[in-house]
Amino acid sequence: MIASITGADVTLPMETSIQAMKCVVTFATLVLSLTARAEGTKNFWGGVGKRAAAVEDTTPTQDPRVLSTRQWYKEVNRNLPRYRKVVKDLQVSTEGGLLTAWFDGASLVKIATGIYGETGRAFEEYYFQGDKLIFAFVQIQRYAGIFGKIVSNEKERFYFEGGRLYRWVKADGRIVSSADLVNPQDLDPKVIGEFEENARWLPKASKLFFDGARSRDATISAPPDFAK
Known about the structure:
globular; alpha+beta
C-alpha cells in the first residue's frame, strides 16, 4: 500500500500520515481543516455496529489463524461499550488527528485513528491480543485538490502473527500472503515491495500508537525521523 497524501509541506508514507512536519496554516485554511476533520470523523465512525461491519473482512479462507482473528475482531467490537476508552490528539500530520483506544482491564485491545492532511485523510484500526498486533485495517480517502471532494476510497486489511505480516487483502480484493514471497516469480516486483513495506511500517506505526495510548500524555507525536 505504497502511496501518499500530501499537503503544502507534508508527505505521508505508506498510506498513513506518520510524519511530524512543521506547517503554517492561515485562518481560512484552519477553518476548512477543522470542518473537514469534524465531518470526516462523524461520517467515518457512524456507529460501533455500522463501523465494525464496514471494516470486517469477509474474503473466503480456511486458514485457522484468519478465522481466529475474525472471531477476536467480533468479540472486541461486541464488547466495546464496556471497555475503558481513551481519546488523545495525534500530532503526526499537517492537519493533526485523533486516536481512540479501548482497554479491557489493563489490556489494550483496539486502537482507531483518524489522520488528516490537506489532500486526503487516513482512518486506521489496530487490534491486539495479549498486547500483540494481530490485525490492521487502513482506509485512505483522497481529495480532489486541497480539502476538495473525496475522489477515491481504498480499504486494505492486514493480518499478523508473531509480529510478522502473513496476509494482505488489497483494495481490489486480491490476497497476497507471505507464502507467495517464497516463490515470487509470479508476483509483480511492485507488489513484493509494497508487502515488505507494509510488513515493516504497520508494526512500527502500531507501536507508536500503542505506547502513546498507554502513556499519560494527552498528545501523541512522532519523532522527526520516524518515517525513515
